[in-house]
Design goal:
145 residues; alpha+beta; five-stranded mixed beta sheet
């Protein structure tokens, strides 16, 4: 049975709730994903999500899953848009990318103080020059103190 036929059977088995293990590369070879690498997913968390002004909030942006050497996410500039008319930016200085050797940064953290009450949608961006590579956001609520 060819790998494409096995991959189709695996998808059918998953749709029917039947598990079939084909190994890590069975379906990736058909779609060309193996050569591109698997893209990590970006999520942002806040703690606390509700507070009283002035509220000091800790934020954590995490790249989950995907390849550790995903080239597009290697050494990006980062931007926190606090939604209170302020932005924090950082551009790292990194060695040139080497396939299989270079590792992406998976965790970014920041603390911000919100001085006014309101609802804030905080956005975290991975950027290369003016292009946004990935964006995730979290909403927090600050009550009058």
């Amino acid at each position: 049975m060819t790998s494409s036929r096995l991959a189709r059977w695996a998808r059918l088995g998953l749709a029917l709730g039947i598990g079939l293990f084909l190994g890590p590369a069975a379906d990736a070879q058909d779609t060309g994903e193996r050569s591109k690498g698997r893209k990590p997913q970006l999520i942002v968390r806040a703690s606390p999500m509700v507070g009283f002004a002035p509220a000091k909030v800790q934020f954590l942006a995490i790249l989950q899953g995907g390849d550790d050497d995903y080239e597009e996410y290697y050494c990006p500039a980062i931007e926190w848009d606090w939604d209170d008319d302020t932005i924090s930016q950082s551009t790292p200085d990194c060695d040139p990318y080497e396939p299989g050797q270079s590792r992406i940064t998976r965790r970014y953290s920041a603390t911000h103080v919100f001085r006014q009450d309101g609802r804030y949608e905080v956005k975290f961006k991975l950027k290369r020059k003016n292009d946004v590579l990935a964006l995730a956001s979290v909403t927090i609520q600050v009550r009058a103190g």
